[in-house]
Design brief:
Elements: H1 8-11, H2 39-48, H3 50-56, H4 59-88, H5 113-125, H6 139-168, H7 171-174, E1 177-179, E2 183-188, E3 191-200, E4 207-219, E5 222-230, E6 248-253, H8 261-265, E7 272-281, E8 287-295, E9 299-301, E10 303-305, E11 309-311, E12 317-319, E13 326-328, E14 336-338, E15 346-348
Parallel strand pairs: 2-9
Antiparallel strand pairs: 1-3, 2-3, 3-6, 4-5, 4-7, 7-8, 10-13, 11-12, 14-15
Helix pairs in contact: 3-6, 4-5, 4-6
């Protein structure tokens, strides 16, 4: 069964591009949607989800939050220890080893705020230098000590858990996945297709790789209309790719059933954005996601990707450093099939 494909002459027509800032997802996968008038409310909702907020912050802000949280905790209880010493009259005692008769010193040698801060730090970190210590005959000091230790343990558990969870997150692994800067439209398996290539920069392979896309386009009465776009690889169909080690190329047939046909194959100037999602798993079972987007001006026509793999003098496969480069697409005979993954050579069946 043959389907009518779009004309490459029409595809090469000059169209008016939208400004590059008008996109939902940046090229590196970050959401570029503005907060709008509800920005303050979003911040309040984010503060209610402190765990998610901590995991979503960059490492520089996580380290800063770590330092500030402990510093504020030490300062808070330094103030409380100083107030306890003040109201108990310990600041007026000249010699804490020989206090006035009938006076119980709550914490030995807290004579200033600096000493109170030092005792707060020693208590939280259980350093125990031995000079300052609370008295067992002062119930207020024992109660405050218990409160500081409980809150300190909760803070340490939260911060430590956030550090471990952030280190274990596979988002950094997704940073080793790169998409081609531009998508190409050319001939593949005897029909016109939109092709996207992704590369794994690390030698550790990923498994169960899946790619999907959503087309966002202007529509009357709706700001952006969403349409699912299916991509395929070789003869795998909709099945995930079992191994992601060398650069892989996905294709989408541009027939009249394709949602991309009206915006790419016809003289339409409507704004659209193709957001691509790639899911993969490591050998440990952790999954990662990488996304990018393509605008109209980021689609090349009458092109195809160059071969992704080559061989060295020993006959071993190696990845071409120009695997994101493109070349002109030539019309193919219906019996000729292009292997766009693997070695990328043409093969006639």
């Amino acid at each position: 069964m043959t389907t009518k494909s779009c004309s490459l002459g029409v595809l090469g027509g000059k169209l008016l591009p939208r400004p590059s800032c008008q996109r939902l997802v940046s090229k590196d996968g970050r959401c570029s949607l503005g907060s709008g008038p509800l920005g303050h409310r979003r911040w309040l909702l984010a503060l209610q989800d402190m765990w998610g907020l901590m995991l979503g912050l960059r490492w520089r802000w996580v380290v800063l939050a770590f330092c500030l949280s402990f510093l504020c905790h030490w300062l808070l209880f330094a103030c409380l220890w100083y107030l306890l010493a003040h109201f108990n009259g310990d600041l007026d005692v000249l010699d804490h080893e020989a206090p006035p008769e009938g006076h119980v010193v709550c914490v030995k040698y807290i004579t200033s705020f600096t000493a109170a801060f030092s005792f707060s730090l020693e208590t939280q970190l259980t350093i125990g230098y031995g000079t300052m210590y609370p008295s067992g005959d002062c119930p207020s000091a024992i109660a405050l000590l218990a409160v500081q230790m409980l809150l300190g343990l909760m803070l340490e558990a939260f911060i430590t858990g956030a550090f471990v969870a952030k280190i274990a997150r596979p988002q950094k692994r997704a940073g080793a996945i790169q998409f081609s800067p531009e998508a190409v439209v050319g001939q593949h398996q005897g029909q016109t297709c939109l092709m996207i290539r992704a590369s794994n920069l690390l030698p550790r392979p990923l498994v169960d790789v899946r790619l999907s896309a959503v087309l966002y386009q202007d529509c009357e009465g709706q700001a952006l209309h969403q349409t699912s776009v299916d991509f395929y690889m070789d003869q795998l169909g909709s099945q995930p790719c079992p191994l992601f080690l060398f650069p892989l190329t996905w294709f989408h047939p541009l027939d009249r059933r394709s949602p991309l046909f009206p915006v790419l194959c016809e003289s339409s100037t409507a704004h659209f954005e193709l957001v691509v999602f790639l899911w993969a798993q490591e050998g440990s079972g952790d999954s990662c996601q990488k996304k990018t987007s393509y605008l109209r001006q980021e689609v090349q026509f009458d092109r195809r990707f160059v071969p992704a793999l080559g061989t060295d003098t020993r006959g071993r496969f190696n990845v071409s450093p120009q695997h994101f480069s493109t070349t002109h697409s030539k019309p193919l005979d219906k019996d000729c099939v292009v292997q766009i993954n693997g070695d990328g050579n043409d093969r006639t069946e």
